[in-house]
Amino acid sequence: MTQLVETAKRDLWEAGEIGEQDVSRLIGRLMHRQVDAGELFFQQRRLESWTLEDGIVKDGAFSVDRGAGVRAVSGEKTGFAYADDIVLPALGKAADAARTIARTGGDGSIQAYRRRDVTPRYSDIDPLASFPDRDKVALLGRADAFARGLDPCVKQVTARLAASFETNLVVGSDGTFAGDVRPLVRFDVAVIVERDGRRERGFAGGGGRHDFSWILSDGADEETRKYAREAVRQALVNLDAVDAPAGSMPVVLAPGWAGVLLHEAVGHGLEGDFNRKGTSAYAGRMGEKVASDLCTVVDDATMDGRRGSLNLDDEGTAGQRTVLIENGVLKGYMQDKLNARLMKMAPTGNGRRESYACLPMPRMTNTLLLAGGSDPEEIIASVGDGVYAVSFGGGQVDITSGRFVFSATEAYRIENGRIATPIRGMSLVGSGPEVMTRVSMVGNDLALDQGIGTCGKEGQTVPVGVGQPTVKIDEITVGGTA
Amino acid sequence: MDVGDLESDLKGLVGDILEEARRQGATAAEVSVGDDEGLTVLVRQRDIETVEFSQDRGFGITVHVGARKGTATTSDSRPDAVRATVRAALGIARHTEEDECNGLADPERMARHLPDLDLHHPWSADADALRDLALETEAAALDYDDRIVNSEGAEVSTQRSCRVYGNTHGFVGAVTGTRHGVHCAVVASEDSGMERDHWYSMTRDPADLEDHAGVGREAARRALARLGAKPIRTGKWPVLFSPRMAAGLIGHLMGAISGGALYRRASYLTDSLGKRIAAKAVTLSEHPHLPKALGSAGFDGDGVATGSKAFVRNGRLERYVLGSYSARRLGLETTGNAGGVFNLRLETDTVCPAALMREMGTGLVVTELMGQGVDIVSGHYSRAAAGIWIEGGEPAYPVEKVTIASTLDDMFHGIVAAGDDVDRRGNIHTGSILVRSMTVAN
C-alpha cells in the first residue's frame, strides 16, 4: 500500500508541482481558525465508455476529471469547498472558504502523518489501457451478433462497455496520509423483443474492480455471451408474463441480485448519519432484536475484486468487514469519521464520496445476507400461493419510516409449491424492520450479484455490491393489477 | 466576474476549442462549456451543520469526422488539456462506425435571435445571511407543533450557472441563470411511529422565493399529516395525483414520446404519431421563452432555436420530442428538443382540488411516490404511494405503504380532470390530475 501512496502523489501532485510540505502548509492554513479536523482529498478519474446500438458502435466517450476537496470540521459543523484544478492558488482559496465554518472550539492540533499497510483487494491496473480500443469495439460487435442470433423476436440490442480508473490521496490533520488506486469495469447488454405487437425488455451485465481481461482474454467470449443470453432470456420470459397479483402474500427472493432489497430495506437504515441524527427507524436500537434469528447481515469491503470493495475508503480508513446484524440482533452501524466521532464509535471504512466535489458520508460497500440452512427447493415448496422474485430493476427507501419499494424485472407466481407463470408490472412494498422479522427461511445458496450495482444517496452515486441466498418472507405487499 | 465578461470569456474558449478540433482534423465539431458557482448552507437542530462552496468549470466536445463521431469531457480548460481532450475525442471517433444520422443540426435551424429570458438574478446574501434564513426556516418547522420531534435540517442555497454552446456552423450562444432554493425536512412522531416529509421553494430570483418560514411550516404540516396512517381495502379506485406527482406522471409520457426511446422502439408509444394517446382533455405544450422560468432556453442542445409548440393536443399525439439525431433516425425534422422539453404545461380546464376530491368520491390522493416501477417499453406502472384516503369527497385519514398499479396507456386515457393548484417549481407545470381508476393495494 505504501507504493500506492507514492503512485497517487506522482499522479496527483506532480503536474501542479506540489510537494508534501505544501500540503502540510495547506493543512496548517485550514487549521488556523482552531478547527477540530482538516482534510484534503485529491482525486483524478478517467472514464471511458463505448456504446453499440443498431449493430454499430456509434458512440464513445472519454473524460478526465481532477480536483481536490477541502474539508474543515468543528464539532458537528463542516465547511467544504473544492478546487477543480490541483494547483496551490486554487487549493489555498478552497482552504480559506472551508475554514470559515469554525468560529470557536477545537484545539487545532495536527498529528504526525501515519502511513499504514493494508492488504490490497484489487490490482492497480489501468483498465482503459489494458486492451486496444479496436478489441473493445470488436467485442461489442460480436455480442450484438450473438444476441440477435439467439431469437428472431430480438429487435434491438444495446451493448455497453465502460471503464474507470481512479487515483486518490487523503491527507488529514488526524495523521491520515493514504492513497488508493481503483480500477472499475462493466459490460452490459439490453435487448428489446417484440412479438404480436407486444414489446418487452431484458437486461444483464457484470463487472468489478479489475481490467478487461475478464471479458477480452478468452477467445470464446464466454463471459459476454453469458450476459447476452441472460438478457434475451429475461425479455422472452416477460413476453409470456401475465399481470401481477395485488395484495399481501409470501414472497421468495432468488439468490444474488435480489439482495438489493436488503440493501434498501435495512442497509441504508444502518448508516451512521441517520442514526446519529435519530432519523432512522433503527436509531437507538443497538443490541436489540431487529430481524428474525435467521438473519446475519454484513457489509464487506474486503472481497477480492468486487465492485463495492475498497482498500481504503475516501477518508483513508481501511476497508473492513462489519457485522451489522447477527442472528437477528443489531450489532453495528456503518460509519465515516465524522459520525463515528460524534457517536463515540470507531470508523468502519464506510466513508465514501462520489467525487472530490462532494462531502463523504457513510455508505455501503458489498452488503450481504449470509447463508442459512434451507434447501432452496424446499423453500419454494413451502409456499402455497405467492411470488418468486428473481430480479429487480431498482428500489428506494424512506429511512425514517423504514418503508421501501422494489420493482421486479423478472418474477413468477408460486402455486402449490411450484414456480408457475411469469408475472409483470410488480412492485414489492414493505417496511424494513417489519420484513426482516418475517424472514422465515434462509437458503444455503449464498450468491453475489454480477457487479453492476450503483447506489444513490443525497444525489451522490457510488458503486456497490449485494448478495444473498434464497430467502422466504412470510408476508409482503405485492402491487400488481390482477 | 461580470456576467458579460464571463460569457465572452467562455465564448472565446469555445472558439479556441473548435479551432483546435478543426486543426486536428475534425470535419465538424460542437463544444459546450459550463461555469457554475454556488453556496449551500445546511442547518440542523438550530445550529449550522455544513457550508459548501462549489465552483466548477468544464467542457465537453463532440467531434465529427465524416459520419463518425467521438466525445470527450474534462474539468481542465488549460491549452494543453484542450489539445489532449480534442485528441481523445478524435481517438474515439477513429474507432466508432459510420452513422449517416450523425453530424450537426442543419445550419438553417440554428437559433438566430436569442430572447432575453430574464434568468440571471444574483443573490447578494453571504454565508451568514443564508445561515440565518435557514435557522429561521427550521425554527418555523420545529416550533409548529410538539409532535415535530426531529429534523433533517433546513437548507438555503444560491447558484449561478453559465453554459456556452458553439459549433462549426458558426453558432455560439450563452445562457446564464441563477437558481435559489429554500428546503426543509422534518420528522413528526407519535405512538404510531415516525414520519418524515419536506417542502421547498426554488426560483430564478431570490425575491420570488416563498416566505422561508412558510416553507418550514409547510414541511411540518406535511409530516404531521402523515401520522396515524391506516390500511385501505385493496381494489380499483380513482387516484388523484398531487401537482408534484402529476408532473412526474407527465414526465413518463414525455419519456415515451422522446426520440431516443422511439427510434430504439423502446416505448409503448412507438408508431403513435397522430393517434389518440390520452383523454380528450389533455393538451401538453412547451413554452421555452417564459421569463424567469426554471426550464427556459433560447436554443436546445444542438443550437437549434426553441419555440412554443404542442406535443399532445386534445389527447392526440401531434409531435414527438426530437433532437436532430433522433429526428434523422425517424425520418422527421428536429423539434428543437435536444436535451428535452422546456417549460411543459398541461393546458386544460381546471377546477379547485376540493372539487376534484368531490368528483372522485372515494379514492386516494397521492402525495408521494417511491420506486422505479414505470416501464415505458411495455407501459406498465406499479409504484409505492403515500397520501390521503378520501371518503365522500372529504379527506378521511393518511395512507402509507400502498401500491398503485395500471398501465400508462390506461392512466392517460383515464384522466378525468385537472386542478388549478399549478406547481411551477420544475420544468413541467401542472396542477393535480385525477385518474379514473387504478389498482390500489396493501
Radius of gyration of chain B: 24 Å
Terminal CA distance of chain B: 56 Å
Given the C-alpha coordinates, what overall shape of chain B results? globular
Q: Bin the helical content of chain B.
A: 10-25%
Distance between the termini of chain A: 56 Å
Q: What structural class do the secondary elements of chain B suggest? A: alpha+beta
**What's the count of strands of chain B?**
18
How many β strands of chain A by DSSP? 24
Strand content of chain B: 35-45%
What is the average of the pLDDT values of chain A? Answer: 93
What does the main sheet of chain A amount to?
Answer: 6 strands, antiparallel
Number of helices of chain B: 9
Major interchain interface with per-chain residue totals: A-B, 79 and 72 residues
* Gross geometry of chain A: globular
Strand content of chain A: 35-45%
Task: Name the strands of the widest sheet of chain A in spatial order.
Answer: 3-2-1-4-5-6
The largest pleated sheet of chain B is described as: 6 strands, antiparallel
Helix content of chain A: 10-25%
Mean pLDDT of chain B: 96
Unreliable residue stretches of chain B? none
